[in-house]
């Protein structure tokens, strides 16, 4: 009887979740980083990653590249949660505080702007207590197909 | 007789190279990414990385996080090549063209600005033919020690 | 009897407003740009500016420099609304849509991150109908005094 | 007899200079800021501006908006010096040191990347002694016309 009671909003959320589950299944990089998808709604996602020994840099803290990779994955999932394929065009990140071995990080992506061709997404990377460790802003563009844009 | 003929510039280059070799030896993340250090002079470095299957995203191309990680490593080595410890504070990256499996990438970091406390480094990520695939600009700050900065 | 009923929150808001009114009175640039201060609470401000003929570039639209100047002023007021003096260290801006002569723009600054030494503020620049025209992210740092930081 | 001896490079430089002179003549904002065009070659320009009293912020130093406006103008002229019309899509700026009243600033724009649709330009803003005061990186995109892009 579930389908009888599902609202349009529920449908949109279910579609977004399925789209990202499919994307994640093909995303070898996200899987190899140990990323988990926690929550998906159209335009917004929450994902998680735990810092492993092979992610530590010469200072013994998480390499900035892995913090970026987590945030960039959140961007990819958020901007593809509406159905039309988008790719990241660029991003900036601010590192607020070092992250140590074994810490579990949550990246929350929020849709700040979206048009037919472009989008801006802000991603906060926080620790288990909710303290922000990095802020990321990414831009995405509609994926051009060989037949046009 | 080597010490008789070494110029001050040769000495500075040798010191920079040793500093980065020591840093790389402790940089588990860079090693796990398969990064190689090609060239180090004070303020500038060139490093390389080859795209592996576990670096591919859902589009089958290199995940932006790994392009960033390569560029961020070049920033870390360039800004630490002068002896005083620095850490990345933030960065921006522009993705110019997709990068495929097996491609060998070269990241060249150039010192754009440097003061006692801050630095700006520009990193070009290019393919084997020298074509740029990404441009990165990173900011670093002097590492604060417990006793002050 | 006003002081008897004022809550601590009212006091903080009144202090923030006074701090920014004083700052604005000394801010010749903001005045020369025709900027008005609409609202100030600790960490957040809303200001406005109307595009004048001398702000138009060769395409006949508002020069990006003036959009940035509006957003940068919102950053300055937001990051100084808490009492401790801060200065802008850097910023990025995305231009979403052109802005024409006579349009009234509202810049809303929001505190995304704040520590004793640094802050990140996001500023949305919107038109009269609330449509975003630019998104700005600025970083500020505690103003160093001659006696130390 | 000049035309007989002009090389293709001389021609390209002369065309770029004419294109930017025409653009400047229509750029009310650049004129109102007192900007002067010093040098134009395809992809690169040098322009100057002197800090006026109406450009000073509440700290008595040049408002960041005017430093950005100078750099953004250099971006606009550099990216339009090749004939195809481009507009700024976004930019980032790092403020290195305060700039005082009466200082003459030089903005030098360099083409870092250029394709048919996009470009990246780096602009250094320096004082009269050549000391950098700000670094700017701007992105531009091909201007879309109503008939297509």
What top-tier CATH class of chain A fits best? Alpha Beta
User: What is the global morphology of chain A?
Assistant: globular
The gyration radius over C-alpha positions of chain A equals 16 Å
User: If interface size is counted as residues with C-beta under 8 Å from the partner's C-beta, which chains form the largest one?
Assistant: A-B, 37 and 37 residues
Widest sheet of chain A: strand order? 1-2-4-5-6-3
Percentage of helical residues of chain A?
25-40%
* Overall pLDDT metric of chain A: 93
Domain tally of chain A: 1
Quick one: how many beta strands of chain A?
Answer: 6
Q: Structural class, from helix and strand content of chain A? A: alpha+beta
Per the CATH scheme, the topology name of chain A is Thiol Ester Dehydrase, Chain A
Q: How many helical stretches of chain A?
A: 4
What's the main sheet of chain A like?
6 strands, antiparallel
Description:
The structure is a homotetramer. Chain A is of the alpha+beta class and about 150 residues long. Chain A has one domain (about 1-140): Roll (Thiol Ester Dehydrase, Chain A). The first copy, chain A, contains 4 helices and 6 strands; from the N terminus they run αααββαββββ. Chain A has a 6-stranded antiparallel β-sheet with strand order 1-2-4-5-6-3. The longest helix of chain A has 19 residues, at about 10-25. Chain A is globular, with a radius of gyration of 16 Å. In chain A, about 45% of the residues are buried. The mean pLDDT of chain A is about 95. Chains in contact: A-B, A-C, A-D, B-C, B-D, C-D. The interface of B and D includes residues 92, 118, 135 and 139 of B. β3 of chain A pairs antiparallel with β3 (about 85-95) of chain B.
């Amino acid at each position: 009887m579930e389908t009888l009671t599902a609202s349009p909003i529920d449908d949109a959320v279910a579609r977004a979740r399925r789209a990202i589950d499919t994307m994640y299944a093909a995303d070898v990089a996200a899987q190899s980083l140990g990323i988990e998808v926690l929550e998906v709604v159209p335009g917004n996602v929450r994902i998680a990653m735990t810092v492993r020994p092979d992610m530590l840099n010469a200072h013994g803290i998480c390499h900035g590249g892995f913090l970026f990779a987590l945030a960039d994955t959140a961007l990819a999932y958020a901007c593809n949660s509406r159905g039309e394929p988008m790719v990241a065009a660029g991003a900036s990140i601010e590192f607020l505080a070092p992250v140590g071995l074994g810490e579990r990080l949550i990246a929350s992506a929020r849709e700040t702007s979206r048009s037919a061709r472009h989008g801006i997404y802000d991603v906060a990377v926080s620790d288990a207590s909710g303290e922000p460790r990095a802020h990321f802003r990414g831009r995405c563009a509609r994926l051009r197909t060989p037949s046009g844009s």
